[in-house]
Structure to design on (318 residues):
């Protein structure tokens, strides 16, 4: 029976991915790991949980061997804005942590690894419209540096050691279950929370800022589909471009205002504006579509309607 380990299982992606994997493969077959001190009740109750730090390769190895792990999802990371506050820590967790995980994996007989890259792998010199799969990768953030380096490390471990590592460059991810922390695209989540709570939001990027985004259910489904695809279909061993929708902060605010009466949005760009301006506006994901059948399901309208109805229930109980 396949057994998976999710490292970073209480983060924005990990908390939803862990539950989706447990639903699909059985609770006991998916070990949730974090270095934080608490597991959310839904994760604590639905399968095995462990405290692991990506800095501790020996402990990760022990855990992989003890549970007979054959698949790893390595999601532990600092996001772009937090990474700029502490570049050393971002390098240690995002890149040295990835290397420790890959080493522990190949020394423990793990067969397959998932690791997320990001639109942050691109930079100011990358073509910003319909950004191609193969293009300039000169990011200006430490987060982006760890993503480009991580992509190359994943490809190297595949070529050198035959470790079947798969990766996608996620756009900004929008979700209502766990909030993101410290990312540049966080405004596209925070706007929904603030609209429901206070009917107003002060956006930290300007109204004309356009970025590629994706709703979490698409991201989770895409991740599982990529991991289930036959190895011969995977032609990209760095990381696949993945896209769903692109919108400006103003278009997002207009959509929220349509669903939340009396909502108003103001704009006060801060240091994250510069990061947003260095990333693509839209992404060409045709390689992922061709290779393993990727197709998004949510656009801005469908996502916003789902976000608002779920957050009304979560925050207001109605
Ligand atoms: N959502 C991430 C961030 O904003 C990008 O991968 O940092």
């Amino acid at each position: 029976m396949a057994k998976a380990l999710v490292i970073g299982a209480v983060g924005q992606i990990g908390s939803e991915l862990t539950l989706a994997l447990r639903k699909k493969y059985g609770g006991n077959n998916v070990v949730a790991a974090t270095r934080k001190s608490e597991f959310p009740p839904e994760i604590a109750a639905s399968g095995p949980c462990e405290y692991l730090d990506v800095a501790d390769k020996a402990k990760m190895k022990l855990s992989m061997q003890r549970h007979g792990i054959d698949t790893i999802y390595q999601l532990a990371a600092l996001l772009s804005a937090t990474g700029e506050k502490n570049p050393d820590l971002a390098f240690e967790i995002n890149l040295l942590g990835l290397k420790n995980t890959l080493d522990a994996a190949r020394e423990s007989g793990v067969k397959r690894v998932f690791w997320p890259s990001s639109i942050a792998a691109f930079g100011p010199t990358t073509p910003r419209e319909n950004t191609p799969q193969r293009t300039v990768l000169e990011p200006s953030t430490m987060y982006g540096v760890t993503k480009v380096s991580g992509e190359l490390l994943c490809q190297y471990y595949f070529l050198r050691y035959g470790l079947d590592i798969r990766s996608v460059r996620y756009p900004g991810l929008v979700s209502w279950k766990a909030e993101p922390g410290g990312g540049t695209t966080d405004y596209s989540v925070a706007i929904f929370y603030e609209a429901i709570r206070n009917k107003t939001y002060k956006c930290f990027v300007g109204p004309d800022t356009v970025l590629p985004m994706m709703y979490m259910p698409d991201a989770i489904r895409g991740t599982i589909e990529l991991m289930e695809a036959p190895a011969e279909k995977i032609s990209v061993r760095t990381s696949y471009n993945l896209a769903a929708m692109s919108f400006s902060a103003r278009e997002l605010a207009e959509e929220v205002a349509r669903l939340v009466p009396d909502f108003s949005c103001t704009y006060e760009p801060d240091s994250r504006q510069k990061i947003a301006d260095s990333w693509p506006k839209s992404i060409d994901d045709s390689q992922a579509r061709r290779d393993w059948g990727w197709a998004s399901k949510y656009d801005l309208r469908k996502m916003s309607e789902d976000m608002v109805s779920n957050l009304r229930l979560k925050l207001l109980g109605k």
In short: The radius of gyration is 19 Å. The chain has a mean pLDDT of 97. The first strand starts at residue 4 and ends at 7.
